[in-house]
Specification:
Elements (H helix, E strand, L loop, with lengths): L1 E4 L2 E4 L1 E5 L3 H19 L4 E5 L2 H8 L6 E5 L9 H10 L6 E5 L8 H10 L3 E3 L5 H13 L11 E6 L3 H13 L9 E6 L2 H8 L6 E5 L8 H10 L6 E5 L8 H8 L3 E5 L5 H8 L11
Helix pairs in contact: 1-5, 2-3, 7-8
Length: about 290
């Protein structure tokens, strides 16, 4: 049952899909304490610890809100899989997601689904009652739709050095302007073959390519194949080496800002935003 309190629609029956008992207790305490203080209301909060249990409980009674953790132990299915299953059943229960993984460990298919569903994601490290309250009011009143043009920004990273990838991912995790929403989804592959597999048929908002790859191919080989296949995603070439052998076509692409060249030490959040500026539907103003 939802209640109208001070012109706000408040959910009273909340199903939380969370496999970590400690995380559930923290979330439950925030929800109960905040609802009591701000709305003088006791919520009915129940926990499902996995995908199958959540699907079963979703059919047992009427719910006003789903809050789903992304990573669930056991079946290999995620909180996003649960929300998708509810959509396929025709459910209109609003939902948002929480994660301790900063959006960087999503499967390649997930970023597309997040954009299509307009789902909001909150980092567990940033959870507070005020953030939960804002999200609850938004998704309940708008039935899960946040903003018309909000989408997850999908970034393909082709990097064969795990330490360098961790440094890159830290650019997104630690930037002070990152909001509590997580609009960026990084997907990493280590070689040319897997990069082309993901590039074909998927519209990436940005590709960050290491120049030197271990399979005798380079980031420029990927760029040239992208051009042959008319794949339009913007590209950043990064390298720990000096003197990348750009041909005349590559130099023109750099001059036209179609291709950005950076040393790995120069790669930062501002450089990424420069490549994303003006891209339709992409979140650029973070904060």
């Amino acid at each position: 049952m939802v209640l109208n309190i001070q012109d706000s629609v408040i959910p009273t029956n909340v199903l939380v899909i969370e496999d970590d008992g400690d995380d559930f207790l923290i979330l439950e305490e925030m929800l109960h304490g905040g609802a009591k203080e701000d709305w003088n209301l006791k919520l009915n909060i129940q926990q499902a610890t996995g995908y199958e249990e959540a699907v079963m409980m979703a059919g047992d009674q009427e719910w006003d809100l789903f809050i789903a953790d992304y990573v669930l132990a056991g079946s290999g299915q995620t909180g996003l899989d649960f929300i998708n299953a509810m959509f396929r059943r025709g459910s209109e229960v609003p939902a948002f997601m929480i994660t301790g993984h900063t959006g960087l460990d999503f499967r390649p298919v997930d970023f597309k689904t997040l954009g299509e569903r307009n789902l909001r994601i909150i980092a567990k490290k940033n959870l507070s009652w005020e953030i939960l309250k804002q999200n609850i009011l938004d998704v309940v009143e708008k039935r899960g739709v946040i903003q018309k043009n909000t989408k997850v920004t999908s970034i393909l990273v082709v990097e064969d050095d795990e330490e360098d990838y961790e440094i890159l991912s830290d650019v997104f995790k630690q930037h002070p302007e990152m909001p509590f929403e997580l609009p960026f989804c990084l997907v990493q592959v280590a070689d040319y073959e897997n990069a082309m597999r993901l590039l074909v048929g998927t519209n990436w908002d940005l590709c960050i390519l290491d120049y030197q790859l271990n399979d005798s191919k380079t980031g420029l080989d990927i760029v040239h194949e992208m051009r042959k296949r008319n794949l339009k995603s913007p590209v950043m070439i990064v390298s720990g080496y000096r003197g990348i052998p750009f041909n005349e076509e590559d130099k023109k692409a750099i001059a036209s800002k179609e291709l950005m060249r950076l040393s790995k030490s120069e790669l930062d959040f501002e450089a990424v935003l420069k490549m994303l500026e003006g891209r339709p539907g992409v979140i650029v103003g973070l904060g």
